[in-house]
Amino acid sequence: MRGNPAAGKDWTKGISLFFLALLIGFQGSMGTEEVLAESGKRPARAPTAIRASSDGNPFGVMLPRKHAEVARQLGVRFYRPNAVFVDQWNGKSGECELAHAQGLDLVLTIRNDGGRKPTSPPKDLDRFRRVVAEILAACRPVLLVVENEENSEALFYTGTPEEYHRELSAACAAAHERGIPCTNGGLVSNLVLFLLAEDLEMRGQKDEAGRVMDEGLGKKALEKLGKGKIHGTALLRTERAHQQLTKGRALLAGYRDAGADYVNFHWYVPRPEWMAQAVAYLTRVTGLPALTNEMGRQLSEDPAEVRALMKQVLDLKLPLAVWFSIDVPGFGGARALVAEDGALRANGRAFKEFLAERFERPGQSAEP
User: Fold this and answer.
1) What is the domain range of residue 15?
2) Are residues 150 and 241 in the same domain?
3) Are residues 22 and 84 in the same domain?
4) Bridge partner list, 264
5) Residue 84: beta bridge partners?
6) How many helices (H) and strands (E) does the chain have?
7) What pLDDT is recorded for position 208?
8) Closest CA to 179 of 142, 223, 129, 126
9) Does one domain contain both 353 and 276?
10) Contact 320, 62 (CB under 8 A)
11) Residue 43 binned pLDDT confidence (cut-offs 50, 70, 90)
């Protein structure tokens, strides 16, 4: 090039910045993996890991508080109590104390506010971080989970992905100061299916992607998406799916930079092979190991499904898998392992037997 060499460098730099802006602008239409690969942005901080257990038991459970004592009988290592709300913190949590009394390791979800309505992002992040630190000191969890199903604006979180990432960063900073790993709140099971199906289609596996949508989603979700008239990968082009996919990609793209040590997903699908594919996808696009603080079955108490999913957890070497054991008849139809009177159902007996066959005793952390 003739003329001033410095001017040529400036011109080249300007073109590079222009194309970087295009990359950012088109992020919503690109897969998360491509965005991360193009940006090359990876933090240098070494992740904080969940403490190793003496027997390798990765399983936990979430139960109604009146049945909390059943957790120990089931043979789990981890216990997930109800969420602790930052704006309501009064210095103690009875459910956390109950879990510790059973010798269980605590997987703690915090939410900024809400309760019977979705959480709003914290306005004062410094104060939020201080209160989170107080909660961690009192509850002593082995893992901090920040919010619940942060992609669900209707049920759990009203903030944008950017607002969530700022909250996640503040909470993870408080956790890391105490040597506690942290993770996101857990992407909704159906969104994980959307993301998996989209990824499969992009990789030329359209038929499999269609099966994920048609067979993985429940009847209610299919009716909401396609009104009974749209099927397969065409469901990914519906407005509702597009909104969730865009939000899901944006959330995934920021977890690691916000300080998360794991990518957390929820799973209610009785297809172990799709769980394996979902874990591979989530790990690939975030660069983080995967875990689930909520898995289970909806509208089913089939013992075979329980055993198959639990085996897949072990095959995938997930460090944590918490079974959601609360009946939710009005939404989703989740089925508990325990009946109203505290007796184990057929699925609960299968869960307990699976653990007893593989672990000599309930898993305990290697450190006090």
Assistant:
1) 5-30
2) yes
3) no
4) 291
5) 110
6) 13, 9
7) 98
8) 142
9) yes
10) no
11) very low
